[in-house]
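Sample intake — Serine acetyltransferase
Collected from: Wenxinia saemankumensis
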Amino acid sequence: MAHAHVQLAEIDPVWDRIRREAERAILDEPQMGGLIHDSVLHHASFERALAYRIASKLSSEEMSAQILREIADEAHEAEPALAEAARADLVAVYERDPACHRFLQPLLYFKGFQAIQAYRLGHWLWMEGRRDLAYFLQMRISESFGIDIHPNARIGKGIMIDHAHSIVIGETAVVGDNVSMLHSVTLGGTGKETEDRHPKIEDGVLIGAGAKVLGNIRIGHCSRIAAGSVVLHDVAPCKTVAGVPARVVGEAGCAQPSVSMDQLLQGMPEV
């Protein structure tokens, strides 16, 4: 068994750590054994466990967990980048969320992580031309997690959505890599315009709770959007914006705001 753990750790250190944490969790709380075995230890790979967890959370009388699991397994087999992004998201949550103490937690309990992985499945379906099934997943993600992400939106990897309630990401929105956002963030349009109408969020951006970013605007890399702000115009890289409507109130304050998660506007003028 020890030799098997060494091999797995070398091949997939994220999955190896999840399994070890799962075994420890059962020792600490035996009543969780059924859930943890079903969700983690019964599966041969991270991809299979992720498919099972997504299916179990999104299943309903309208579509069974078995069908959803088969769809997710198909997607992960056809597009390995889905699980690669999921691993990056999981590590991002662990590194940035002080309430996350184990790799096991996002997979089992955190709806922000679960919702973004379900979105990734819906986006794959959308790109494959399976639009009705993608819309169905969007509906179930909204119903199950309180997060509405259009399956045509493009979202990078290393994403951390903290608390994750009432997130809205529109159809033509683009979110880069290593972005962090808190609850009640909207990446929306400004009316009934069509075509490319949603924000473009570059790498390393931190979006505070309740912020609204509206229209086909660009938020430059490694910038910060203060909680409650309404952003209607482009933001240059490495800046902090705050207010309604938002304006630049200073520099970002660090090289990677989305990683440091520092949301305080210390030393900046009142707005």
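Post-analysis note: DSSP finds ten helices and 15 strands in the chain.
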